[in-house]
Design brief:
single chain; 6-stranded antiparallel beta sheet
Length: about 280
Amino acid sequence: MTPSWDQLGKIDPKALWEARLQAHHAVQWVARAAGANIMPMPSDTQFNFGWDRDQGALVSHELRGRSDTLRVGLVMATMTLVVLRDASVIDQFVLDGKRHADAGLWLDRILSTAGLALASGAALSYAIPAHPVGDGAAYVSGPQRGEFRVLANWFACADDMIGAIHATLPQGTASPVRCWPHRFDIATLWTLGDGDAETAPSVGIGLSPGDGCYAQPYFYVTLWPRPAPEKLPPLPPPGDWHTDEFIGAVLTGEAIVAMPDRATRTRQFLDAAVSVARRLVAPR
């Protein structure tokens, strides 16, 4: 899936909330498959996903079974769970009209054949926003094909943008660009000092597809340790500081689609916000 900044405004960013919630629930099967088959890693990174540009999918780390090595993913534009061997799709499950439990049965069968542990046996230590599919309702993606395609495009653009920024950071100081199943954001964490990821000064650079703070996709640059709100300097418009629940520079989807040269302006904002954040958390 080729990122298209021109297509981001095809649907109002605030109209993507339903697609985002269904996709967030669906991708938990990818997280469960990983959790069942990958040894625990620091910061629970075994659960996270990479964006596979060729497939247009959020895809797990490799799952090594007795008889096969597979990856599991969600093609967001079509709401299709896929199982890959190397770069090839060997099976798929279209979620439209199906129930969450149906997807689990399909995935368990494939994992079992490959000598892997069942995804349904994996426990998740976090909660995600409620949606009827989590209580047994069927997925309904057909009537919102456009919304799912645009949502997928937000992830594709974010992976491309954050990946370009990641490439400019000192080698070995920033985590790979990955999507996290609990918050459903795609991000990198740039560590600026001594200590682990939980305690060292750091700057997070990412995109959330929407959450309890913003009912639309938004790019963010977060800071740790958190500075006092009164010490935050001005940011280039139309971005601004968010100080409720987290402190970070935010550029909302509706602000992005209202701008000409969306990719260029977004990159300029993120570069400026990262520079400000670095000075605030790790002054020289």
